[in-house]
Amino acid sequence: MDSAIWTLFIIFIGLVIVNVLFLQIKRNQRGKDFSGISLRVKTWWGMFVVFCLATLFNPVISMFSLMVLCFFSLKEYFSMMKTRKADRRIFLWAYVSIPIQFYWIYIGWYGMFIVFIPVYVFLLLPLPRLLGKGTLGFLRSVSSTQWGIMLMVFGLSHLAYYQIASPEYGANLVLFLVVLTQVSDIVQFVVSMYIGKRKVVPTSNPYITWEGFLSAMVVTTGVSYFLYPFLTPLDIRFGILSGLIISISGFVGSLTISVLKRDLLIGNQERVAALKESYLNRVDSLAYTSPIFFHIIRYYFDFM
User: Residues 6 or more apart from 268 whose CB is under 8 A from it?
Assistant: First the structure.
């Protein structure tokens, strides 16, 4: 826990320095648009508070804070969908799945935690849509809702299970994962925005470039090599591999959810602009990095 406190303290100091430098640059260069960076700085502060709760306090408080994060992320995902009255019941069932999923985490029932959403929720979720006698748009409504639950509930809920799977190292592993995911996102964003030329998928996300992805992978691996002795019981091989695993899975997560958003929001540019300030933009990478890192570590190490 001491190493986690010191890491959080260093992150806090780093955020303060970044905030002061950003305000100074913004004051000196009034003609430039810094809205994208401003939004990210605000979001980093918000996520810092959330993951302080998830790291420093007992698992119940951690689970509650992460459950709230899942709720707001899923809510914003649903706000992107073109809905009908018949969809309201299926959304309600989707929200109900959040406390049930976290209950399995609370009692430590790994078997149910891992199959509840991919099996039971997926198979039973169409029922309220069928009972509502809604056939128009049935497949799009149900499949889009299932995707949202899979990413925003199943994926993010793994963050809460780390402390249950490993009471000794779980909190530090969450901090390690979140720091590396955010480092990868930051480097990818900055390099892609100011240096990157070769766009990965210009039709779905014009802001992600190959230069940004490769830079993020190198920097995240370096940060992972520096941090792993303080926050994890991993060996040097996985200390290095963790950076690669997290940067690659975070990149795939950002790309996938950006494609999902553009598909759901075709023809609604006003909503696209509003969602630039959403939770969804900041947790898209975590929805991928959290379960992938969890299952790889759990497979290779006994402490999970």
Answer: none
